[in-house]
Amino acid sequence: MPTDGRGPVDRTSMTLTALAEHEDKAAALLPAEVYDYFAAGAGAETTLHESRTAWEHYRVRPRVLRDVGRVDLPTSLLGAEVSSPVVLAPTAFQGLAHAEGERATARAAAATGSLLALSTRSSTPLEEVAAAGSAPWWFQVYAMRDRDLTLRLVERAVSAGARALVLTGDTPYVGIKRRVTGTRIAIPDDHFLVNLQQHLDPGRADARRAAEQDPTITLEAISWLAEASGLPVLVKGVLRGDEAVACLDAGAAGVVVSNHGGRQLDRAVPSAIALPEVVDAVAGRAPVLVDGGIRSGLDCLVALALGASAVMVGRPVVWGLAAGGEAGVVEALEALRADLTHVMALTGAASLADLDRSLVTATSIWSPL
Ligand SMILES: Cc1cc2nc3c(=O)[nH]c(=O)nc-3n(C[C@H](O)[C@H](O)[C@H](O)COP(=O)(O)O)c2cc1C
Ligand SMILES: CCCCCCC(=O)C(=O)O
């Protein structure tokens, strides 16, 4: 059994069955419409499905006879020191998953030394989330129709200690999910507007509309947010090399390769397939993170070997939270850490620096036009 910086990594006691069990438990515990809100993908859920399976189209080319008695996962992301390259993706309305919502998630991030990305649409005021855990955190920004509201929120995130902004670029309108649309879930105002209440005049009739994502924002929003906040801005939702370069040229400090966990444009390319193109185009200018369907150490290993600086996980955190609050999120993050440590050892990699593209090969079903 390999050790990491904290001691032996006993994979047998923390297997990935934890992740599957969490989802089963969440499905049993949550009202069906809440479970469906978290689980759903857009359209026919083709991209939701492929987000996961696309990672399996890569095969590993391990090195042999390397010293893997100790495997190290700590890394640094835009100046934040973290214990592993697994980052908590921004996911909205965690108060629907567990009464402690984002507070429990923040404590779990702190307990595991992980970086947390907090959603604009958190169910808990951002200051309370920041106070709940000592982990470094980034604030995910939905630029809202009311730009002033957006700025007020960003200013509060800066004051509360956010280390970077993550501007989501793939959600001019919320993707249509067949499981959710119609009579299913309508997010109540006490979740949707929780971060905004203090800025809204009581009884403001157009509050929901003002808080909607602004579909007219352009690349200029990157420098607008960077100048207003003094923070680095990453753009999330990038699936093409040329778009990544355009974001960096417009002032982005990094990009997140993402199709929003299959929740926005159905039949969007899986992140696993888009990642190498983006990494090549970015050419080391800035960190490239990736998310979508990452459920195992092998998925993490493939992403890191393809050139990602870190991976983000969305639903595994939500299911852990629903299943067990803070302890459930810790369990999910530790399961991924233990599994990544194990597969790195079997690949002959003792540190993240040992992960490079020579370690993976693509099977052929995804080919360029
Ligand atoms: C329930 C749910 C809510 C989400 N809310 C947000 C959000 O508020 N902002 C955002 O940028 N992305 C949001 N995402 C997308 C995640 O940040 C991430 O891209 C996605 O979940 C990764 O895929 P995975 O769930 O397969 O790990 C959400 C995803 C889910 C499942
Ligand atoms: C019902 C409003 C959803 C806001 C966006 C949250 C999100 O990004 C997601 O659900 O996905």
TrEMBL record:
Q: Where is the FMN hydroxy acid dehydrogenase domain?
A: 11-365
The catalytic site is made up of: 260
Query: Carries keyword Oxidoreductase?
Result: yes
Its recorded name reads: Alpha-hydroxy-acid oxidizing protein
Taxonomy, top ranks, is: Bacteria, Bacillati, Actinomycetota, Actinomycetes, Micrococcales
**Cofactor(s) required for function per UniProt:** FMN
> CDD domains given for it?
alpha_hydroxyacid_oxid_FMN (cd02809)
The scientific name of the source species is: Actinotalea soli
The record ties this protein, via InterPro entries, to:
Aldolase_TIM, Alpha-hydoxy_acid_DH_FMN, FMN-dep_DH, FMN_HAD, FMN_hydac_DH_AS
Q: Give binding positions for glyoxylate.
A: 37, 142, 260, 263
Query: What family is this protein classified in?
Result: Belongs to the FMN-dependent alpha-hydroxy acid dehydrogenase family.
- Sites binding FMN sit at 90-92, 119, 140, 168, 236, 258, 291-295, 314-315
Q: Which domain of life is it from?
A: Bacteria
Molecular function (GO) terms listed?
FMN binding; oxidoreductase activity, acting on CH-OH group of donors
Keywords, in A-Z order: Flavoprotein, FMN, Oxidoreductase
